Amino acid sequence: MRVDFGSSAMVRVLIVGLLLIGAIGFSQEEKPTEDTEKELSAVESFQVINDIKVIAQKAALPALIGENKFVLRESWWGGSIAPGKAKLHKVQLFKRNSYQFWMAVPNLRAELNLNLYDSEGKLVPTDVKFIDGENIATTIVSPEMTGIYFVRVSLKNSIDLNQDYAVIYAYR
Amino acid sequence: MKQIFIIAALSLGGFGVSFAEDAPTQLNLNDPNLIFVEESVIPIPLEIFASLDKLGAQDWGPQVLDRAVKLDPNRSRTAMLFGLVVSEGFIAVQAEDKDAVRRIGREVLKLAAPLNVSGSVEGHANSIIDAAGNGDWDMVRTELDKTRQTVINEMKENRDNELVALVSIGGWLGGTEALASVLKTNYSVEGSDLLNQPDLVKQLREDFNELPDRARKGELFNQVSNTLNHLESLMQVDAAGAISEGSVVEISLATSNLVKAIYES
């Protein structure tokens, strides 16, 4: 009997995905934004951001299956961001590859920007799309040059509270 | 008319808010008000190989080298070796070499003990070995990346931050050695741009230089420092966006010598 490993891998991905969806349902409902304003221990802070990473991973799942799928990196960025502020994360990208980035924050009313800049600070034109509202943003880029780029994440002034955030990315 | 003016003014006001919150088309990267997050993500070899393979299928088999892993009490060297071995795993995945991946899974376990990360690595290493046996390359690739990330997380939890930079250097070095070797054999201007990584090398070099002296004592670590300096100058593209064939040969030689020194010291 020929075993189709591709399919078995797909089944595993879907099972993990379903488990994640369960976890996310909990994290989105049970974690009001105010939680991020409390004094948290280092372990609690890590757990909060880790839960937000799971929100981003759930949003990424559809892009990680199929023939032209992206491959998710295990490395990711996390932190906290204030309304009206932006942060830059450095990343080395390679020409001919495409990259998809996802940024998530827990508050469903939060509005995000997720953009890419080249090593000279020039905005790389991309379309930013939002998943399930405005608190998960995603964008795809196919860099014209190999080199250092900056992922710029920002939080609009639509809410008053700082947001913990996670950024994940995948390549193909 | 008055209504039109009011609507226009409101619209402009709306645009004003929108522009202020939208992404600027140009950033001044020297602006002291910009917030750069220091922690950078190091690309894994497969990310780079994926790009090169789009120029035509490459023969990755010869890049899988069966090098003996010798342990010694120097944890800094062991951390670099760990990064190197994981990168060898990525190369073996690209070459779809089952035996090599299984061997590498065992070596990962062997190296994890002196780095105090056995507990978190064991599951991943066993998954790598099992998945390689089944030819499930997607799973091997995922588990290798997880191994790398888990070890880095565990080292941070263990307050072994200095080892994190060394794992990253080892991992990057192994992938770069393989890439330069393939490009040296089959040089193309287009492919050479993948070595355009001077900023990344600079970051690795700075991370290395920030390590306490005790973590980089000895001849091997002088060689690491010298090689990173040398690579930073070699990995500069020319006006056409290429790295010359001569520089590719030099990059190949420099990385290969350093990898050999890490394995054999």
Topology overview:
The complex is a heterodimer of chains A (172) and B (265).
Chain A: H1 5-30, H2 42-60, E1 71-81, E2 86-93, E3 99-104, E4 112-117, E5 123-124, E6 128-130, E7 136-141, E8 147-155, E9 163-171
Antiparallel strand pairs in A: 1-9, 2-8, 3-7, 3-9, 4-5, 4-8, 6-7
Helix pairs in contact in A: 1-2
Chain B: H1 2-21, E1 36-41, H2 45-53, H3 75-94, H4 98-112, H5 118-134, H6 137-157, H7 161-185, H8 189-192, H9 198-209, H10 219-234, H11 245-264
Helix pairs in contact in B: 2-7, 3-4, 3-6, 3-7, 4-5, 5-6, 6-7, 7-11, 9-10, 10-11
Describe the structure.
The complex is a heterodimer of chains A (172) and B (265). Chain A has helices spanning 5-30, 42-60, and strands spanning 71-81, 86-93, 99-104, 112-117, 123-124, 128-130, 136-141, 147-155, 163-171. Chain A is an alpha+beta fold and 172 residues long. Chain A is globular. Chain B has 265 residues and is mainly alpha-helical. Chain B is built from 11 helices and 1 strand, in the order αβαααααααααα. Chain B has helices at 2-21, 45-53, 75-94, 98-112, 118-134, 137-157, 161-185, 189-192, 198-209, 219-234, 245-264; one strand spanning 36-41. The model of chain B is unreliable at 4-20 (pLDDT under 50). The interface between A and B is large, with 48 and 45 residues. Strand 2 of chain A pairs parallel with strand 1 (36-41) of chain B.
Mean pLDDT of chain A equals: 81
Query: Strand order, biggest sheet of chain A?
Result: 1-9-3-7-6
Strand content of chain A: 25-35%
List low-confidence stretches of chain A: 1-11, 13-37
Dominant shape of chain A: globular
Number of strands of chain A: 9
Q: Return Rg of chain B in Å.
A: 22 Å
Give the helix level of chain A as a range of percent: 25-40%
Helix content of chain B: 55-70%
